[in-house]
C-alpha cells in the first residue's frame, strides 16, 4: 500500500474538519439580514471591510449552500437557517441583480442592490444559472428551475450564436479568439441537474463545447492554451502563449465528468493526460511548491502581474482533478499527486483558527492578502473541493 493510500482516513477527517470550519465561517459572518443576500467582502476574522456586493459570489454562495444541503447536510448546524439564507440570496439575485428587460446580470451592486456595473461576458449570468438550478434541487420550487433554464438559454445564445448583447463591439484591430473559460463553463452548466427533455435539447450545445475545448490542445498535445483562434490555431502574440493552469485543470475535470457520463474512454484519457496532468507538471513550482498562477508557454516572463503567486482556487481544482482521476482509473499515481497538493494546501492556505482558506500567497508561500472574501474570492471553491473529495474518499474507505 502506498503512503497516500494509507492516508485515506486522514485525508477524509482533515477535509471534514476543514469543511465544518468553512461552513461555520460563512454562516456566522456573511449573511445580510437587512437587505438580503450576502456580505462577501470579509476579513480573516469575519469583519466586513466593504459592503459592495459582487454578484459572482452572491450566486456562488447560493449554489454552495444548496450543494451543502444536498451533499453534506451533516456539517450544517441549522439547516433551516442555511436554506433561508440561500433563498434570501436567490431573491436578491432575481430582484436586484438580474435586469428583467435584458436578462443581463449586474456584476456589482450596492449593499441594498442598486446597480454599479456590468461585465461584458457571460460569467455573472453563468453563476446565476448555477445558483437557481442547484437551489431548485433542494426546494423543488419551480420558479428557481424556470429562472435557471431561461438564463441558460440566453447564455447558450450569447456564447454560441451572437454576443453583441453583452456589449462586445469589435474594433478595427481586434483579433477574434476562443477563450477556454467560455466553453468550459457552458459545458459545466449543461451537466447540472436538468429535466430529461432539456438535457436532450442541450446535446448539440454540449458537443460543440467539447470540440471547442479540444481545440485548445496545442503543440502536439503538450500545452493547453487559454486563447486560440476561432478555428483552433495558435495566436502569434503573448496573449496566444498564455497558460492558465487553474482553468486548464478545472476544464479537465469538467471534461472528465462529461466523458464518464457518455462512456467515452478516449476522452477520459485526454481529459486526464492533457488537461490535468500536463498543466500540473508545467505549473508546479519545484523550488517552493504550489502552482504558479499564470505561465507563458515559451518561457518568457508572463505579462500578468502576480503570475508567480500561489492562488487558492487552482489548488482546489487540481485536488478535485486528481481525486476524480484516481476514482476513474484507480491509478495510484493520481492519489500520490493529490497527496502532494493536499499537504501544500494544508500547510499554507487553510486557516485552522478562523475557518475557510486564505486566497493569495507569494511565490514562497507567505500570505499576502488576509481577507477571506473579496471581489474575486468568496464562498465557493474551497467548499466545492471539500464536498467532492470528501464524498469520493468516504466511498473509497467504505469499499476497503
Protein described:
The protein is mainly alpha-helical and 400 residues long. Helix content is 53%, strand content 8%. The protein has 13 helices and 14 strands. The strands form six sheets. Strands 3-4-5 form a three-stranded antiparallel sheet. Strands 12-13-14 form a three-stranded antiparallel sheet. Strands 1-2 form a two-stranded antiparallel sheet.
**Major sheet: size, sense and barrel closure?**
3 strands, antiparallel
Number of helices: 13
- Count of extended strands: 14
What order do the SSEs take from the amino end to the carboxyl end, as H and E? HEEEHHEEHHEHHHEEEEHHEEHHEEH
Question: Regions with pLDDT < 50 over 5+ consecutive residues?
Answer: none
Structural Rg: 20 Å
Q: Termini distance?
A: 12 Å
| Fraction in beta strands | 5-15%
Mean pLDDT: 97
Secondary structure: helix percent: 40-55%
Structural class: mainly alpha
The coarse silhouette is globular
With strands numbered from the N-terminus, the spatial order across the biggest sheet is 3-4-5
Concise overview:
With 400 residues, the protein is mostly helical. It contains 13 helices and 14 strands.
Could you outline the blueprint of secondary structure elements for this entry?
Elements: H1 8-29, E1 41-42, E2 48-50, E3 53-54, H2 55-71, H3 79-97, E4 108-109, E5 115-117, H4 123-139, H5 142-160, E6 178-179, H6 181-190, H7 196-201, H8 203-214, E7 217-218, E8 223-224, E9 227-228, E10 242-243, H9 245-262, H10 265-283, E11 295-296, E12 310-311, H11 312-329, H12 332-348, E13 360-361, E14 367-369, H13 381-399
Antiparallel strand pairs: 1-2, 3-4, 4-5, 6-9, 7-8, 10-11, 12-13, 13-14
Helix pairs in contact: 1-13, 2-3, 2-4, 2-13, 3-4, 4-5, 4-6, 5-6, 6-8, 6-9, 9-10, 9-11, 10-11, 11-12, 11-13
